[in-house]
Amino acid sequence: MKKALSLLICALMLVSMTVFAASAVNYEQPFDRGTLNVKEYRIPALYTLENGAVIAGADMRYDHGSDSPNNIDIAVAVSEDGYTGWEYNVINYFDDYADGKTGTDSASYIDSAIVQSKKTDRIFVLADIYPSGGGWKPSGAETGFVDIDGEKCLLLTDGDYAGDIDAFEYYLGKDGVVYNKADNTATEYTVDAEYRLYKNGAALMMDQKGAEGVKVQQNVFYKEAELSCYLTSYLCIRYSDDNGETWSAPQLISAQVKQKGETFIGTAPGRGIVTTLADGTERIIFCVYDNTGLLGHDPIFENASTIYSDDNGATWHRGEETTIVVGIQKTSEAQIVELATQEDGMPVLRMYARNGSNYIAYADSYDGGISWTTFVRDEALQGTKNCMYSFINTSKEIDGKKVILSSAGGNLDKRADGIVRVGLVDSTDINNIKVEWITKYRVEPGFFGYSCLTELADGNIGYLYEDEASHIRYMILALDEEGNLTEINGNNFEGTVKLTGWQKFVKFFKDLFNNILAWFGLI
User: Fold this and answer.
1) What is the distance between the alpha carbons of residues 20 and 512, in angstroms, rounded to a whole number?
2) Of 9, 86, 389, 501, which sits with the fewest C-beta atoms within 10 Å of its C-beta?
3) C-alpha–C-alpha distance, residues 338 and 393, integer Å
4) Could you report the per-residue pLDDT of 401-413, keeping only the tens digit for each?
5) Is 70 exceeded by the pLDDT of residue 4?
6) Residue 79 dihedral angles phi and psi, to the nearest 5°
7) Residue 385: its pLDDT value, please?
8) Residue-range definition of the domain harbouring residue 200
9) Beta carbons of 46 and 464 less than 8 angstroms apart
10) Alpha helices in 206-269 (DSSP H)
11) Count of structural domains, the chain
12) Around 310, how many Cα atoms within 13 Å sit in the side-chain half-sphere?
């Protein structure tokens, strides 16, 4: 009997291994080290497109992990199904420094967020853009634009690009010609759609830093150029109308949304959201934040807000700054989910934001993301403070309630212990909507930083997250009808360290053997 049972178990193990191998779902790492010859990637962005494809974005940090000022560009990758076949496009790129070289006097793009219009299929990527040496702190308290006959025009100077903005003598016209600000006369300078500089029709060149004997074209975002823009933070949008194959020129929208007196304004990386207003208007929303807060106070008073467009990105508007309570300290990088629809047809939106406590905080909007209730902590959502979180809606319901997902670090002392939670939305009281967090899945016991979730076309969950200081990992999770998450074709970490390849091998056969014994009722 024992011998027969042993043979049967062995046979079942072989069959199970065959079935497992046949049903295993393979997927690729879009931003693994070495992709596009880049060693370090940070700041994941992820979004499922209307056609079922998935677009991912990340900062190309080359051989360093530091924020701006540094040599940073932004790449996007598109997969037809979110599993394999990633196609790459470096959409935001400066060449003042050679690839792989860096310095604190480099121009940079940083922190991308992605969203797509449901009506036009246009994809938008929002990012921060900095002139040479620009970043979170070295930003002047102006927009960098001047109003000329009702048009916002980029200011330029042939002097100190970080100096007094009133001394900037030139501006860039909508026709690409550089004009004298004093009398609106044209100069011999022109600028193309990528802000590269020409004089009398000839491209102006400069030495590329970090390379021997290489010349690159001057750009008004480079301090070495004959004309340079003001040293402050700018917001840049590019869009694609062909599912990410080609991209528009950069659209600087800072003048539309940056408030006078603000120094830094930055993208909340990850993803935006699209909602529908009561009159049927589609509203495209990104979260942003500034470090001005109460003017004259320390930048700890960071405040989250939104920028939004009701005309498919033609114009952008700024929402109101959020308010906080004692214990939260600030709000900055944020993500939005849609919880319910009011009787008048307006959506109820919830913004979850990075803050200074060990609880994730949120505020609600009843006017389409313009104004927000006072931020409060969700006492059921402990998370690593001062780190970006990811929140998304899903198409699923459990017990008639909408399902949303949360991704955050679970360690209260440092960026570590990544956890995805499943929440059920109770909108019985539209003015006091509750989210019950019913299950959680531990994805990473070690270092865990920024992350971004998306629901794939097949219902599984795509998941990009930082599992090392400058490395992004891609994972796919399955969500069952009871709200339980499992990793597809992977391993759920059980200890405080990652399992080795041999440990994973042993664990697989141990789990398989125990499952077979349990099936026979032997354990």
Assistant:
1) 10
2) 501
3) 7
4) 999 999 999 999 9
5) no
6) -120, 140
7) 92
8) 145-229
9) yes
10) 254-257
11) 1
12) 12
Beta strands 401-409 and 303-309, pairing class: unpaired
- The residue type of 199 is K
The tokens describing 66, both together, are: 């530091």
Name beta bridge partners: 146: 153
Strands lying side by side in the sheet with 471-479: 451-455, 461-468, 471-479, 485-487
Question: What amino acid occupies position 373?
Answer: T
- Quick one: tokens of 409? 């670090």
Cis, peptide link before residue 445, omega less than 30° from 0: no
Does a structural domain hold residue 243?
no
Structure tokens at 422: 């499943």
Cα–Cα distances (Å) from 520 to 16, 176, 255, 511, 513, in that order, read 14, 76, 69, 14, 11
Kindly report the CATH number assigned to the domain that includes residue 217: 2.40.220.10
Percent of the chain with pLDDT over 70: 87
3-state secondary structure of 63: coil
Strands 270-271 and 108-116: parallel
Computed over every residue of the chain, the mean pLDDT equals 89
User: 82: phi > 0 → left, psi -120 to 50 → alpha, else beta; which?
Assistant: left
Span 143-170, mean pLDDT?
95
User: CA torsion sign, 514 to 518 to 520 to 522?
Assistant: positive
Report yes or no on 157 lying in a domain.
Answer: yes
Coil, helix or strand at residue 508: helix
pLDDT at 295: 40
Helix pair angle (2-23, 501-519), 10° resolution = 120
**Which of 466, 452, 471 shows the shortest CA–CA distance to 63?**
471
pLDDT of res. 324: 85
Contacts of 319 (CB under 8 A, 6+ apart): 305, 306, 307, 308, 369, 370, 371, 372
Separation CA 165–CA 171 (nearest Å): 12
Q: How many CB atoms lie within 10 A of CB 459?
A: 11
- pLDDT, one tens digit per residue, over 128-156 is 999 999 998 878 889 999 999 999 999 99
Residue 423 lies in a domain: no
DSSP label at residue 37: G
Backbone angles phi, psi at 38, to 5 degrees: -110, 130
Q: Which residues pair with 318 in a beta bridge?
A: 307
Task: Name the pTM for this structure.
Answer: 0.89
203 inside domain = yes
- Give me the mean pLDDT over the 487-509 stretch: 52
- Please classify residue 329 by burial: count the beta carbons closer than 10 Å to its beta carbon, then call 0-12 exposed, 13-18 middle and 19+ buried: middle
